[in-house]
Write a structure and sequence with these properties.
The structure is a single chain. About 55% of the residues lie in helices and about 10% in strands. By secondary structure, the chain is α+β, with helices and mostly antiparallel strands. β5 and β6 (about 100) form a beta hairpin. α10 runs parallel beside α13 (about 340-365).
């Protein structure tokens, strides 16, 4: 059966233009089979059986051919006949002509025959080739040999005499000096000098950057939306914890003891509530694996990926921070103004975004789940210890902890902004009954050690600056790894080869011994046990 399609530029009669043999002989193959018959001399009942009888046909380039018929009609037998892969117990008559020449198609049979390992007539060629080079068949051959000790070994078949390692060594030695190797080397040299071939991957994606950005953002957003462990479970935990915080600090008031309660509540929100953002590290790790794989094909740029990742996570981070901040603010009853509640939500949003950016940096540096969680937790502990709650910022040791760590610590800016948002404008009861009221500004300066000579919005601006710096650092790390990775791998490979070259075992690696001619041992003897049967 032939399946053809009419050419669009064909003749007026609708015929399909044929390719002449002269035009396509250098790049196409024409196959003809004439009066092809396949006979099984002894089918088991003493009578010969014709598997194929007088088939004639042809195959031309540019046409899709289909061989159709019921099971057992001889489709596979015909293909084996045309490919020269008939079993040795079958007899084929007729002609198979390829490009005008009568020949027998074979699959490497001439090379194996030239090397001294011709395929016996009673063996399938593919089985013979695999048996010569694959040591996995040695155990089967050994077992069959032990079961046929009474049979005479075929000394004419080298595959039954030599081990697999010896056969492979002879094949390699024969190939190196054969015409096949010479033709391969000449073709390699010819292809190596072809100019004008370029790697299109180095040119980057043909899509515009905004198209890449929109596609990546949509894909990442759908992934976050469908994956419960990415954000949804964290959102539920955040809401549950915010309800817990709201009930513990419910209607905190303005008594003198509420000063420390407000400080504790603000520190918990700015510290521990953002600490939970490290729970997204497994998802970040999987996302980085996808990025490295796609980056090899230059599907998109690093900057586009980082921006798309931030934009796709924006709705979920906003949902988390605004839900948490609103519940805590109105249950604790810090203040009644909506603008103050909005600042709490923005402060928490910026802090969570910074922590997620930090975890993305860790995922790019440490592609290991356990080590990444440990590093992320250690980073968050240092942030909380130097944020100004456990010890006020002026009391921190100046070397390293105060300068520069507290200035690049997002927790310090987040906590200062939260304290200013809550305390400025409030008055608290005095410790002494009927004493003067304590102003929030005084509490900020004398008790918490926070200066209020600049606006809380500058603290929020510092948070956003740290967020941008973390994203830029993330971009720099990915760019550096991409540029330095080939150099590092080359140096590592050279160093490893130098070390291995000094080892005698590497200079002369013994071939894997064949088990074809080894004696079989019982399982009990292999395990060091004594069987009463043996």
């Amino acid at each position: 059966m032939e399946i053809e399609s009419d050419a669009q530029d064909g003749g007026s009669d609708g015929s399909t233009p044929e390719m002449s043999l002269e035009e396509g002989k250098n790049e196409a193959m024409y196959l003809v089979w004439d009066d092809l018959s396949v006979i099984l001399p002894n089918s088991g009942n003493g009578h010969a059986r014709k598997l194929l009888k007088g088939l004639t046909g042809h195959a031309e380039p540019g046409r899709i051919m289909a061989i159709m018929g019921p099971s057992g009609s001889g489709k596979s037998t015909l293909l084996d006949s045309l490919a020269g892969r008939l079993s040795g117990n079958l007899v084929m008559t007729g002609n198979v002509i390829l490009n005008g020449k009568k020949r027998k198609l074979n699959c490497g049979g001439l090379f194996f025959a030239d090397a001294g390992f011709p395929c016996p007539n009673t063996r399938n060629p593919s089985d013979h080739f695999l048996r010569c080079i694959n040591s996995d068949f040695d155990t089967v051959a050994t077992f069959m040999g032990s079961c046929r000790k009474h049979e005479t070994q075929n000394v004419l078949d080298p595959a039954t005499i030599l081990t697999t390692a010896e056969i492979k060594a002879l094949l390699i030695q024969t190939y190196r000096g054969s015409e096949y190797a010479s033709k391969a080397r000449a073709r390699i040299q010819e292809i190596s000098h072809i100019e004008g071939l370029t790697d299109r991957r180095s040119e980057g994606s043909p899509a515009k950057w905004w198209k890449q950005l929109s596609t990546l953002t949509r894909r990442s957003f759908k992934n976050m939306l469908r994956d419960l462990g990415y954000y949804w479970i964290r959102i539920v935990i955040y809401i549950a914890l915010s309800i817990c915080v709201g009930t513990i600090f419910f209607d905190i008031g303005t008594s003198y003891t509420s000063i420390w309660a407000r400080g504790s509540c603000g520190a918990f929100v700015a510290g521990y509530m953002t600490f939970m953002s490290i729970g997204g590290f497994p998802s970040f790790l999987e996302e980085m694996k996808v990025f490295y794989h796609e980056r090899l094909n230059r599907h998109y740029g690093i900057a586009v990926y980082i921006l798309a990742n931030f934009l796709s996570s924006l709705p979920f981070v906003a949902m988390t921070s605004f839900a948490t901040g609103t519940i805590i603010y109105y249950m604790v009853k810090f203040r009644s103004e909506f603008s103050l509640c909005l600042y709490v939500c923005l402060d928490l949003f910026s802090s969570i975004a910074v922590v997620e950016s930090c975890m993305m940096i860790i995922a790019s540096l440490v592609p290991n789940f356990l080590m990444g969680i440990i590093l992320g937790a250690g980073y968050m502990v240092i942030v909380m210890m130097t944020s100004g709650y456990f010890r006020s910022l002026p009391d921190l040791p100046r070397a390293f902890w105060r300068y520069p760590l507290s200035y690049i610590n997002y927790g310090a800016w987040a906590l200062q902004g939260a304290y200013k948002n809550d305390l400025i404008g409030l008055e608290f009861d005095s410790l002494v009954p009927d004493g003067p009221k304590l102003k929030g500004e005084l509490v900020l300066t004398n008790i918490l050690g926070i200066k209020h000579n600049y606006s809380k919005w500058w603290d929020l601006a510092a948070l956003l600056t740290i967020l941008i710096c973390y994203r830029l650092l993330f971009f720099t790390i990915l760019k550096f790894k991409e540029r330095a990775s080939p150099i590092v791998r080359t140096l590592h490979a050279k160093r490893t080869l130098r070390q291995l070259s000094k080892r005698p075992s590497f200079q002369n690696i013994p071939s894997v011994p064949s088990k074809r001619h080894q004696r079989l041992h019982s399982l009990s003897s292999q395990e060091g046990l004594n069987s009463p049967i043996h």
